[in-house]
Amino acid sequence: MSDIYDSIIIGAGPAGLAAALYNARDRFKTLILEKFYPGGQIINTDRIENFPGFESIAGADLVEKMKAQAENFGAELKVSQEVKSLEKLPDGNIRINCAKENFTARSVIIACGSDYRKLGIPGEEEFRNAGAGVSYCGTCDGPFFKGKTVVAIGGGNTAIEEALHVAKFAAQLTLVHRRQEFRATKVLTEELMQKVNEPHSNIKLKLDNIPLAIGGSTKVENIKLKNVKTNKEEQLPCDGVFIFVGMIPNTAFLKGFLDLTEAGFIKCDVGYLRTKVPGIFTAGDCRIGAAMQLATAVGDGVNAAMMTKQYLRDPKWWNMPISDSLAPGQW
Ligand code: NAP
Fold first, then answer.
1. Helices (H), 154-201
2. Is the CB–ligand 1 distance for residue 138 below 6 Å?
3. Which residues are catalytic?
4. Are 307 and 273 in contact (CB under 8 A)?
5. What pTM does this model have?
6. Is residue 330 one of the residues assigned to a domain?
7. Nearest-CA neighbor of 17 among 33, 35, 4?
8. Residue 327 and residue 245: Cα distance in Å, rounded?
9. What does the DSSP 8-state code read for residue 290?
10. In whole angstroms, what is the distance from residue 100 CA to residue 243 CA?
11. Residues 130 and 223 in one domain
């Protein structure tokens, strides 16, 4: 049997595992390469309530089901395989260079995900997970803070959108930002200010402040802030801290090979998920325009696998425009 895989998937998060299920079920020789262990971000999520079909499921349990489902259809998983670089070979195949081994495939799906940017302050790691009080996803964890007092950190689009969402559940939300001006778009900032200025609003702002430490015994009980203009420190009591200070895609190994945005997200045509290199697709939180949700990552994985099928059937498909308005090379 040939050593060449039909499809190699980089990353065993929800996008990668969903892609592997579809590719393996199409009887393609499929390999998933994972740097650490399967699951991506959801492996650390206690309770998922927004994945359709599951009222509530632990992230680790969902990962186990996804992994088993893909493997049952013949997908092969190799863990502790950190991809260092990719090469397009003269015969059209793609070589994937890991630290100790190389693999060759006719097609690749890059689903290497993103990590939440951390504040790097005491208490952040200790209380990480919504049960203990530190969360990086308001859409996922907002409902767990019903009637509670929470603090959100950040001033970008995510911070404002997510703070507005969490404030629908929390009794009180304080948004802490390190400057006076928000990085978020004007429309979102205006929406926030409108809410803040409503009579009896449950959203307060603390501008020109940075977080210094998150405190508590077994759960979050307070956060220490410092005003960067006055240097005055204060401790705010709270039940939870939402950290929305950006995402870092795990794409450093692709620099110079694929087109990345300044922030490191993989450029692709968001309809068919093609990168600039024929045969290489991307899926999930590492690509531009991702909604950063479990269900959309799974959808992306499925989409990339369906497009892989088209490409493997006929590589000329690669140059197919999605519509008259989006010609190949325009993404
Ligand atoms: P972002 O735009 O990079 O914003 C990060 C925010 O966190 C900034 O306000 C930044 O402050 C602050 N920050 C960073 N490090 C910090 C630290 N150590 N301590 C305190 N604050 C810190 O990230 P994002 O909001 O996650 O958005 C990522 C991308 O997705 C952006 O391009 C965004 O436009 C896009 N997005 C779009 C939408 C939408 O269109 N609806 C929704 C969500 C995200 P400074 O401003 O002072 O640097």
1. 157-166, 186-196
2. no
3. 137, 140-141
4. yes
5. 0.81
6. no
7. 33
8. 35
9. -
10. 36
11. yes
By residue range, what is the domain housing residue 166?
118-243
Q: Using CA positions, which residue lies closest to atom 2 of ligand 1? A: 156
Domain with residue 252: its CATH number is 3.50.50.60
Euclidean distance between CA atoms 280 and 94, whole angstroms:
8
Q: What is the pLDDT of residue 324?
A: 57
Question: d(Cα 285, Cα 15) in Å, to the nearest integer?
Answer: 8
Q: Does residue 151 sit within a domain? A: yes
Nearest to 115 by CA among 248, 242, 10: 248
DSSP-derived secondary structure for 59-117: HHHHHHHHHHHHHHTT-EEE-S--EEEEEE-TTS-EEEEESS-EEEEEEEEE---EEEP
Mutate to test the pocket of ligand 1, among 124, 158, 224, 265 (most ligand atoms within 8 A of CB): 158
| Phi, psi values for residue 220, rounded to 5° | -65, 130
Is the CB–ligand 1 distance for residue 275 below 6 Å?
A: no
Tokens of 232: 């005055």
State both tokens at 209: 């402040």
Tokens representing residue 260 in the block: 């990345």
Quick: pLDDT tens for 262-301: 999 999 998 999 999 999 999 999 999 999 889 999 999 9
What's the CA dihedral at 121, 125, 126, 131 to 10 degrees? Answer: 120
Collect all residues with Cβ–Cβ distance below 8 Å to 68 and sequence separation of at least 6: none
Q: With respect to residue 16, please indicate whether it lies within any of the assigned structural domains.
A: yes
Q: Computed over its alpha carbons, how large is the radius of gyration of the chain?
A: 22
Q: Residue 266: inside a domain, yes or no?
A: yes
| pLDDT under 50: residue ranges of the chain | none
Q: Please indicate, yes or no, whether residues 102 and 137 belong to a single structural domain of this protein.
A: no
